[in-house]
Amino acid sequence: MLRRLTYLARLVRIARTLQKHDALFPLERLDAPPMVLRLARLFAGRSRRNRERRPGERLAAALEDLGPSFIKLGQALSVRADLLGEGIADDLGRLRDRLPEFGFDAARETIESQLERPLAELYLEFDRKPVAAASIAQVHFATIATPDGPVPVAVKVLRPGIEDRLQRDMDLFFWLARIAERADPKLRRLRPVDIVRTLQQSVALEMDLRLEAAAADEMGEVFQQDPDFRTPAIDWERTAGRVLTMERVTSVPIGDNAAMDAAGIDRPALAERVIRIFLRQSLAHGFFHADMHQGNLFVDPDGTVVAVDYGIMGRLDHRTRLFMAEMLGAFIAGDYRRAAEVHIAAGYVPPETSVDLFAQACRSIGAPIRGKPVSEISIGRLMAQLFRVTETFAMETRTELLLLQKTMVTVEGVSRGIDPDINFWSASQPVIETWARDNLGPEARIAGIITDTMDIVEKVPRLLEKADRAFDRLEKIEGEAVEKAVSGNGSRAVLAGIFGVLVGLVIAVVATGFMD
After folding, report:
1. Is 446 inside any structural domain?
2. Distance between CA 59 and CA 74 in Å, rounded?
3. How far apart, in whole angstroms, are the C-alpha atoms of residue 362 and residue 378?
């Protein structure tokens, strides 16, 4: 009961902040308790200056006021135009982690306690004022001593007390999500509890900067031979749970078109490169940077893209990547029946769904955008339409795709900012076709069968060994001992041994026949 009252009190404070920005409409749409809405309107008058702003702008401003967890929630909702509408989703997509900086003394205390050395011993120079302050951490520039001379670095430091604050907010989100699922059966399809759980897992990873360092290091290995993309080097000696030190990136910010033009960067080629890097990460490797906004992307003079901030990463298993490749490939080729078949085969819509009807729905999404430049296409609107269509066919929200959807929308915006005339589908096609050929073609399927068979073959010796032991045991059982062995637990042991022999022999024959 006390917890419920605490949540209600917090909900009133949240409602007051929303009302202050004239952004109470999400609570109204979600049927928040009337008492909460009345109290919010009673204690917070509507601001006149907000009346001229779009609803999405007002909501984004309110979420920024509410702090880190709500900024993260707004970013997650930016891909759910089916919940709040396309205009609001677009405005939430512009939400960035911009918060007031915390003091230098707090940053120094964190660094020294985490690395167990005085700041002056760790860094030759350390800028007192941060260059960026986000919801989870802030970044300072510094310089370290190396055998080759001073090297500029960037130092990321977590906000004091951020873990406890985020946990309190996540507890509240779970409470609200459970209420939403119980109150409105239609919301169960959207799986709000699973969405909050996905958000919580993502935020939890950001709370340990060693995990971010590991993600950057892994991405660097994955793209080591790729000339299009690189990651900053990690300084592991000066990295701990709440502190991360890495190479300072001095390349041109991708959001600065004038600087890129001055540096002679081919912007149309760069826009395509950004899209293809994202697709290679997500499709080829199943491991992608899930926060690819302009503030995190830079470009070297030779056109190599450099990404920073690996706190939010996405992973896709092979089966999901197969679905994604086939689905995108079908849309690009205009094969809407295949797109429908892929959705059904993957279990993304119920198996009893009519292929013809769902193909018709896919055509309603894909046909209007084929061959058009990104300036006339919004991936965000495309996602919203897909959600609306799939709702008709009782498709549940796939939480494993939320980060992918969010990143795809962000990458679209970045690419459009670099080159407004880029065609997302044309840029995607070479990567998707190459990956599909390597993973969906006959050769790939044969390779998959061989791999699966070899996995089984590797188990054969262990099965045969168990069978030999079982036969040895059988040989020792004579007369009355046989009757005892085949009763109770003994019977199960004997049967298990015999079954092991049979399975081992069958697998051995099948494997030998396949290899021949």
Report:
1. no
2. 9
3. 16
Buried b (16+ CB within 10 A) or exposed e, 438-460: ebeeeeeeeeeeeeeeeeebeeb
How far apart, in whole angstroms, are the C-alpha atoms of residue 168 and residue 488? 54
**So what's the pLDDT on residue 210?**
96
Which of 59-68, 85-94, 109-118, 272-281 comes out lowest in average pLDDT? Answer: 85-94
∠ Cα 441 444 450 (to 5°): 145
Confidence of residue 156 (pLDDT cuts 50, 70, 90): very high
> Whole domain around residue 280: which residue ranges?
251-440
Q: How far apart are CA 141 and CA 152, in angstroms?
A: 7
Name the domain boundary from 248, 272, 300.
248
Residue 296 token pair: 């995190």
Q: Give CA–CA dist 333/338, Å, rounded.
A: 10
Least confident interval from 335-344, 431-440, 467-476: 467-476
Tell me which residue of 408, 402, 440, 373 sits closest to 82, measured CA to CA.
402
Q: Are 36 and 12 in contact (CB under 8 A)?
A: yes
- CA 189, 194, 198, 199 torsion-angle sign: positive
Task: Say which of 291, 309, 335, 419 is annotated catalytic.
Answer: 291
Greater confidence (380 vs 235) lies with 235
Q: Does 291 participate in catalysis according to the annotation?
A: yes
84 to 81, 186, 199: CA distances (angstroms):
5, 15, 18
Which residue has 């690996």 as its token pair?
A: 310
Other beta carbons less than 10 A from residue 466's beta carbon = 16
DSSP secondary structure code for residue 368 in this structure: G
Task: Give the Cα separation of 146 and 475 in Å (integer).
Answer: 71
Distance separating alpha carbons of residues 175 and 76, to the nearest angstrom: 18
Do residues 391 and 265 both lie within one domain?
Answer: yes
- Same-domain check for residues 285 and 384: yes
pTM confidence score: 0.72
58 vs 28, residue with greater confidence? 58
